[in-house]
Design goal:
Blueprint (H helix, E strand, L loop, with lengths): L3 E4 L3 H12 L4 E4 L23 E4 L5 H11 L3 H8 L1 E2 L4 E4 L1 H13 L4 E4 L11 E3 L7 H11 L4 E7 L2 E3 L9 E2 L12 E6 L1 H12 L10 H5 L14 H6 L26 E7 L6 E4 L8 H8 L10 E3 L2 E7 L2 H4 L5 E2 L2 E6 L9 H19 L12 H11 L26 H22 L1
Parallel strand pairs: 1-2, 1-7, 2-6, 7-17
Antiparallel strand pairs: 3-5, 4-5, 8-15, 9-13, 9-14, 10-11, 11-12, 12-13, 16-17
Helix pairs in contact: 1-11, 2-11, 2-13, 3-4
Length: 444
């Protein structure tokens, strides 16, 4: 008999299971793949990354970097695996998806107190449990969560970017380089530069391309959610283009910090490609989430200079993500409001970003272990990035509730920083976060 049931073997569920087991609990980790598909995952590995392969900035004065430093202090297993599977990506932590997922799966499988059960959970488990089923929660479990909460689900649509073969990129046009680092001809990104005419020709083709109809989301559409309901951080490029023909040039295609070596000048716009696997033969189009039909992706994206003969290893696609009304349903400990022994973690709570998912899984796993031992649960200081994320998803105004990733805007104001520069101010917030986390751990 397990002490704890964890539902979902994604980022949050895997971290939660590990933390609880490390704290002495016998854990049953349920993952429905491969017998039940999500429509977006491709393997049966735990912690498979569906969208980008980037876990955000590693810089200590960036919000994602602050969260990573907190997770290092809290001994996150998934962050260890990510750093072991790291790829060149400038100041960001990007990983080889396959290596990362295999490492997580192996460590979970080899833990003496974790048992992986490949079955779909269709009801809320009795006893101590963590629901970390993610944004692709199955319909049956979603209905059980609806019945438990008495509230309708919230939806937003998410999209993923295409991946192309490295050998199919025309390096006579594309060039390597990282932003603001012109001395590095072997930069971590491949850059496809546009002239003004090439950019407007591309945008015009994008605006007239055909998109995939949302037939797989008929239930969501019947409840009032339409194709226009996207999370701002994952907007498809065709949706961004609809906001104005220059919106991409000031968004994911902004060319700042880069010069085309052929001209010595900054391009009018740029598409960056990031390495997607350790072998270095696959690259994803950074920020190019899309819902275009597959033939249209070939036609339109081959208008990108350097991708005229691009071989698409994976096309972009869109899927429905699900998250609960956390401000009405969860406490900052990630416990369900009406049931002390039930926790939620990961993207289903409204936390956005890979690191946020890992972090809430870590906190839920630790708190579930504390609950089992009848010890006080942890509520992290809101001055820490993880504490601020948990405070946001449990205190936001429900009518404006949107998935939230780590950012300095959710931290409480810090006195004496108004006159500081942006980076100095960020460093002050980062220093306070780590100091407050350390103080809390010392006093626990």
């Amino acid at each position: 008999m397990a002490d704890l049931t964890v539902v979902g073997g994604g980022l949050a569920g895997s971290e939660a299971a590990w933390q609880a087991a490390e704290n002495g609990l016998e854990v049953a980790l349920y993952e429905m793949r491969p017998s039940v598909s999500t429509g977006a995952h491709e393997t049966e590995y735990l912690a498979e990354l569906v969208c980008s392969n980037s876990l955000g900035s590693n810089l200590p004065d960036r919000a994602s970097g602050v969260l990573k430093n907190e997770l290092r202090r809290l001994k996150s297993m998934l962050l260890e695996c990510a750093e072991a599977a790291a790829l060149p990506a400038g100041a960001a932590l990007a990983v080889d998806r396959g290596i990362f997922a295999r490492q997580v799966t192996e460590r979970i499988q080899n833990h003496p107190r974790i048992k992986i059960i490949r079955e779909e959970i269709t009801e809320i488990p009795h006893g101590l449990a963590i629901i970390a089923s993610g944004p692709l929660t199955s319909d049956k479990l979603s209905k059980a969560i609806e019945h438990l909460s008495g509230r309708e689900r919230l939806f937003f649509f998410d999209a993923i970017a295409p991946i192309v073969a490295r050998d199919s990129i025309n390096m006579q046009i594309a060039f390597r380089g990282s932003r603001y680092d012109q001395s590095d001809e072997d930069g971590d990104y491949i850059n496809c530069p546009f002239t003004k005419d090439e950019y407007y020709h591309f945008v015009d083709a994008l605006l007239h391309a055909e998109c995939i109809e949302l037939r797989s989301f008929e239930e969501a559409i019947r409840t009032g959610v339409t194709a226009g309901h996207f999370f701002e951080g994952c907007l498809p490029v065709e949706i961004i283009a609809e906001r104005g023909k220059d919106s991409l040039a000031f968004g994911p295609m902004r060319p700042v910090g880069l010069k085309d070596p052929r001209t010595g000048r900054r391009p009018y716009a740029i598409v960056q490609l990031r390495q997607d696997n350790l072998a270095g033969n696959l690259y994803n189009l950074v920020g190019f989430q899309t819902n275009l039909k597959y033939p249209e992706q070939q036609r339109v994206f081959r208008l990108i200079p350097g991708l005229e003969k691009a071989e698409f290893v994976r096309y972009g696609q869109m899927h429905r993500n699900t998250f609960i009304a956390s401000p009405k349903l969860l406490r900052p400990t990630l416990q369900f409001i009406d049931r002390d022994d039930l926790f939620f973690a990961g993207q289903i709570t409204g936390v956005e970003g890979y690191m946020g998912n890992i972090a809430t899984g870590l906190l839920a796993g630790i708190n579930a272990a504390l609950f089992h031992k009848r010890q006080p649960l942890i509520t992290l200081p809101p001055t820490t990035m993880l504490g601020a994320l948990c405070h946001y998803v449990t205190h936001a105004d429900l009518k404006d509730f949107q998935p939230m990733k780590a950012n300095f805007g959710i931290l409480p104001p810090l006195e004496g920083t108004k006159r500081l520069g942006k980076r100095e101010r960020a460093k002050a917030y980062a220093d306070r976060a780590l100091a407050d986390l350390e103080n809390m751990l010392v006093t626990e």
